[in-house]
From TrEMBL:
<keyword id="KW-0805">Transcription regulation</keyword>
<dbReference type="InterPro" id="IPR036271">
    <property type="entry name" value="Tet_transcr_reg_TetR-rel_C_sf"/>
</dbReference>
<keyword id="KW-0804">Transcription</keyword>
<dbReference type="Pfam" id="PF00440">
    <property type="entry name" value="TetR_N"/>
</dbReference>
<protein>
    <submittedName>
        <fullName>TetR family transcriptional regulator</fullName>
    </submittedName>
</protein>
<feature type="domain" description="HTH tetR-type">
    <location>
        <begin position="29"/>
        <end position="89"/>
    </location>
</feature>
<dbReference type="InterPro" id="IPR009057">
    <property type="entry name" value="Homeodomain-like_sf"/>
</dbReference>
<dbReference type="GO" id="GO:0003677">
    <property type="term" value="F:DNA binding"/>
</dbReference>
<keyword id="KW-0238">DNA-binding</keyword>
<feature type="DNA-binding region" description="H-T-H motif">
    <location>
        <begin position="52"/>
        <end position="71"/>
    </location>
</feature>
<dbReference type="InterPro" id="IPR001647">
    <property type="entry name" value="HTH_TetR"/>
</dbReference>
Amino acid sequence: MTPLIPAVKRCLMIVMEIASKRPSGRPRSFDRDAALETAMRLFWKYGYEGVSFQQLTAALGIGAPSLYAAFGNKGALYREALDRYANMRGASDLSFMEAACSLREAVRLLLEGTARGLVDPAGEVGCMLNTGMIASHPDHEDLARDLAQRRAQFRALLTDTLQRWVSREHATRLSSYVTAVMQGMAIQARDGFRQEQLQVVVDEALKAVPDDSHTRTDVRQK
């Protein structure tokens, strides 16, 4: 039986050599887009600090080296997830408001669409942008600033859109009010508010919006 021992050793050495030459990194079946979708859902539901690195790799079905190779680090993955969420929600496109015949109608379209999206069963409850990183550890200050900047950009976009009906000064004040309502509804949705309850909030909020511009006129300052 002893003559077999050298043969076995040679076989093991060959196997180990082959294994050492296998390329490292992501498996061939890795789907980056699907992984980003999964990460977005996790961050949306639990927040950035509520999802550990180990939970991410487990949910994505990849090891830490593969995650780093695909996305960089956890913070970079979070930013990509935010971009994906913003695109999905149309956060940079308010053109649907242009069909409104009055200022109040335009705001109603925005707030009612927000209310539906916050409790859409196809997604997670709440809003990843409106409530993301509101409270966070100092180590994540850069991500908190990123979220604050994204919210500021949305307010600026809304201000520009509202100038179709009112002056820039009025539009600036109104956009701050409307986005505050949207953020409040996002928190209430996380607290368990149903769509009909959010609709009550929308109806009350609209009472503060003037309805004296029945004909759409672009009053933006040039």
